Amino acid sequence: MMFGLASFIRRSYQAIYPREVPKQDHAIRFGLLGATDIAPWTLITPAKTHSEVIIAAVAARDRKKAAAYAKKYKIPIVHSSFEELLSDPAIDAVYIALPNAYHLEWATKAIEAGKHVLLEIPSVANAEEAATLFRNPILSQPDSAVLLEAMHFRFHPAWQKLLSSIDRENIVEVHSTQHVPRGIVPLYGSACKYHLAGGCLMALGTYNLASLRQVFGAEPIECLAASCNHVPPGNDQEIDRAFYSSWKFPNNAFGSIEADFMADGGYSWPLTEELPTIALPKLTIKHREAIVEGDLPSDQEHVVTKIVTMWNWSLTYFYHRIDIENKHVVRTKSDGRSVKEWTETEYVKDYAGDTGVDSWSSYRFQLEAFVAKVLEKPQHSQSRSPLPDASGPRPGSGVWIEGEDSINQMNMIDTAYIKAGLPIRTSSLKNGERKPTN
Question: How many angstroms separate the CA atoms of 183 and 196, rounded?
Fold first, then answer.
């Protein structure tokens, strides 16, 4: 117990305050589109431990804000506009964490400028936009830019460990939950503005939907039901503060999600209805009952049901645990009466995988994959100092998110919104809001 606590404290400290490593001459030089609150956690801090990544520039609508941001995070270059940053030949890649309504516009401009793009979730505002972006003819060229939707949890080795512990063809039910305590997501922020393509399903629930698609290894056949809780009256009522949906998948299997980014209540004590909810993200995967062969009386049978539960599945780097339960029952064939029952449980964790460090966040593992993909591109090796391994695949986890995957992800979001009676989100190009808020 004490060892586990000490490991948790050490990992957390090293993830938040990592020791910066020297940078290599061929390092990828990132520019940030927007002086965003999320970038220090998702890119700036992870980049400190990557010798092949430099956070080189930032641009924001307000140059003073960008300059203050650059000073705080020790970013050497401040550009006066996004266009100016994209035209900077010293910048190799950009990170886009603007409000969702601006993703299509600026990701498109970035790849047209030849910049690699790490694009925050959700990739765009809707499925039509996703198809426009990820099927852009520029991306089919051999020397095209790299474009990745930053679905970070998929890159952590614990998630890959989970996938290796399940039997997809025999899964019967999956339930995915996430709750952000009330008070963390501000009502005035872009996540709560329809014209900025906000909403709980966009900001948080997209991870839950992705977890279903990953676990089943397939696209849903149908959205069976979807509903939401709206933000409080007086705010944008096209915004969902919590979202619930259930889905039918192949092999007569079913998945459901519960996502709430203003969660309160849920406690058993009185007068706690408005207290912020504290709960770990939880993913429960139930398999079909299977017959176990063995020496039993002819009127009895031995069956086992496998249930896999992953705690903190979306924030695995701080803490996680995979519980693999095999529930055994010996019963009579005639009436199903239980003769004997027992449960075998295995607890699994994986913080480092085969190629990482146990204090790396899922964002750091994601950055590893992104860098590997970029450095395979010949144009990068030609623009920097000689790079011996740039001409072929580099070591790594092998995890990647293809463009069609991101399109399917947005299609699932659209389907859920329509089922819940809410409008799908649109981009800045359609709603007339041209200026990013960062």
Answer: 20
